[in-house]
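Q: How would the structure tokens look for this protein?
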Amino acid sequence: MNNYAIQPFHFPTTVVFVDDSLQFLSNLSLQLDSRLAYRLYSSPFAALVALNGSAQMPPVAERFFSLYRHRGDKSVTRHVIDVSLDMIHREVHNEHRFEQVSVVVVDYDMPEIDGLEFCRSLKNKALKKILLTGKADEQTAVRAFNEKTIDRFIRKQDDDVMSQLNRAIAELQREHFDQIEHMLADALSVGSHLFLRDVAFGERFREIARRLNIVEHYLCCGPDGILMLDMGGAAHLLIVQTEEMMRGHYEIAYDQNAPEELLAQLRDGRSLPYFWKTAGNYSPIYDDWQPCMHPAEEFQGREWYLYTVVKNPGAFNLKYVFPYGDYLERLDSEARQGIARAD
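A: Here is the predicted structure in token form.
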């Protein structure tokens, strides 16, 4: 189970459906969540070639963790691990991020290869697997679930099969990210991003995300917060500060001979600063500092927070980011051309 109230990063992933019946796949596609990215395969072997041959996202250890090379301790018996928080929000620039397959939904009863053998043939063990079964196959599915060959099984004949399927896919996609982010849990828990583990603030974050129709988000620092993007790639930055952080902003601004009005706003918590050109802190280069101050809202969770949401944050070069809405349109275009969704 994830240790976070808010995942450090999340973006939509692709679901693969495998069934030898083209009619079933066609009917299925009409009943799926409209914001779900998916590919359909009527040939299980074509699906295996695509899944086993595709380049999945490298393990989190390779992307965010490395040995810290500038440590003073030269003992070979100790390693100091460097966590690159900057790499988290840079994931938004990976134009192939949505292509990552997180869940595979496969029919059990197929003539070429049955669904369980298909699941056993998948090389990527991180993939979540849902088996669609008939009534006669239920005992087989239960055994496969207990053996962890599959993660869920759903009976095709159930009246609410589509609601079960949409719900199971959403749950397994979340679990997929839980696994990816597991190594970050302890590393971030001792840092400044305490709001990630705050259940109450997690609910507030989800309210904000729903209001702004956010589909992907990424932890960032300088200032601490979360970069959020909607279907069209429009960006908002949720800045989250504690009392100690605000005191630090004030002290730096005071030492830099900031205007008294700015100091007053930092003292009373009316506004949060976003001095993006200088990693979040005030500098005399900001002759016109007022646009860098944003109305703050208070929130009491496990800690006391001030937060604000900044539209089109200046610190991130997002001009060429590939949005999720464009990815869905690409999949639809491929489906109309018969390229990808029915092989």
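The chain has twelve helices and 15 strands.

The radius of gyration is 24 Å.

Upvote if useful.
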